[in-house]
């Protein structure tokens, strides 16, 4: 699993977040996508690394701008993750 975080300029409200999430789902094979207009970011969880350039282009087509992207291995945070044996 891979977690991709995109910095997105132009999101102002919950509808903006929904537009971004919809575009991401249509453009890439994702497990989960959440956007935050207050943080100015979209976090995507996918089985495989994503085509960042394709996502940037699809998001740009909707009037938003991706200003940065970061990929890292996704670690599911469970309720008991603080219990290390």
Automatic annotation (TrEMBL):
Residues 2-67 form the HMA domain. InterPro entries: HMA_dom, HMA_dom_sf. Pfam families: HMA (PF00403). SUPFAM superfamilies: HMA, heavy metal-associated domain. This is Heavy-metal-associated domain-containing protein. It comes from Faecalibacterium longum.
């Amino acid at each position: 699993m891979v977690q991709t975080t995109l910095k997105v300029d132009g999101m102002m409200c919950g509808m903006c977040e929904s537009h971004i999430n919809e575009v991401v789902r249509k453009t890439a094979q994702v497990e989960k996508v959440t956007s935050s207009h207050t943080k100015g970011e979209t976090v995507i969880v996918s089985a495989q690394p994503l085509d960042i350039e394709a996502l940037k282009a699809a998001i740009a087509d909707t009037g938003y701008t991706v200003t940065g992207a970061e990929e890292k291995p996704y670690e599911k945070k469970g309720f008991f993750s603080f219990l290390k044996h």
